[in-house]
Amino acid sequence: MTLLNTPLHELDPAIAAALDAELERQQSTLEMIASENFAPVAVM
Predict the structure, then answer these.
(1) What is the Cα–Cα distance from 35 to 16, expressed in whole angstroms?
(2) Does this model's pTM top 0.85?
(3) Residue 1: what pLDDT?
(4) Residues 29, 31, 32, CA angle at the centre, nearest 5°?
(5) Pair 8, 16: CB distance under 8 Å
(6) What's the domain range around 32?
(7) Per-position DSSP letters for 22-40, written without gaps between them
(8) Count of domains for the chain
(9) pLDDT value of position 37
(10) Between 16 and which of 6, 8, 22, 28 could a Cys-Cys bridge form, CB atoms 3.0 to 4.6 Å apart?
């Protein structure tokens, strides 16, 4: 098997595990991003 065809988990298990963990995090959590960066005067 060539380097380009070798699965990542065989080449670098630590990187593969980090990518798997990040994918799981993104699929299992809701990340809310503010669409605007101001607050109403009543809040201030």
Answers:
(1) 33
(2) no
(3) 64
(4) 140
(5) yes
(6) 3-43
(7) HHHHHHHS-----S-----
(8) 1
(9) 76
(10) 8
What are the backbone angles phi and psi of residue 41, rounded to the nearest 5°? -60, -35
3-class SS of residue 10? helix
- Number of neighbours of residue 9 by Cβ within 10 angstroms: 13
- Compute the distance between CA of residue 29 and CA of residue 7 in angstroms, rounded to an integer: 27
Q: Write out the two tokens for 32.
A: 């809310």
pLDDT for the residue numbered 2: 83
Q: Which two tokens stand for residue 12?
A: 């670098």
Contact assessment for residue 16 and residue 9, using Cβ atoms and an 8 Å cutoff: yes
Q: What is the pLDDT of residues 8-41, one digit of tens each?
A: 999 999 999 999 999 999 999 998 887 777 777 8
| Best CA proximity match to 1, nearest among 10, 16, 14 | 10
Cα 27 to Cα 19: distance, rounded to the nearest angstrom = 12
